[in-house]
Amino acid sequence: LSQDNKEVVVELSRETSFIQEIENYLRIEKFLRSETARNMKDFTMIKAKKAEDLEDGRKRSVEMLKDSLRYADVYINGNAHKLNHTEISSRMEEAMGILLSEIYVKLGAIETVKGSSDIKEVLTSSRHSGDIKLAGMQKDNHLALDEMQRYLQRTASDTRVSLKSVKMDFENPPYGFKANDVLWLLAVLFREEEIS
Q1: Main-chain dihedrals φ then ψ at residue 81, nearest 5 degrees
Q2: What's the pLDDT tens digit per position in 26-45?
Q3: Residue 103 to residues 73, 78, 118, 131, Cα–Cα distance (Å)
Q4: Could you give the CA distance from residue 179 to residue 35 in angstroms, rounded to a whole number?
């Protein structure tokens, strides 16, 4: 397990009874498909009996696997985590949520998701007409605006900054912003004449 892999690892119990149950299920299934079984004198009767065994084994295997998953140890980015849920899908959602929050540590800076109509509104609003909308817009996602400003100040001092590079950097870790959010942030900064 490594922190570099950015992964969720579920370690099942060392209890092997469900693996033995699955192996038994697969052996019966393989036997029923074999030429040897089909050539047996009472194949139809054997197949009916084994079909019951197969269904029972499948049900037991599924239940045993579910139990194992409910109480399995979970590692996120190489670290053991005690999850709050025992229901399997809730455990996996919780684990993925933790993983995403550890990868996209600045995603929370976007408080309000923006769309193309929001971008258009920023670009068409009149900054000098006493329009209070723009000031209100700046309160939305103010942490993300601060991040964008710092990023641009840091990056622009070293090199020329392109829209493509800004989008790529802010859509990837540690940000994870959507393209429209990045464009909205740039539109607000442009409108406020913080960037040109």
Answers
A1: -130, 135
A2: 888 888 888 888 888 888 88
A3: 21, 13, 27, 38
A4: 58
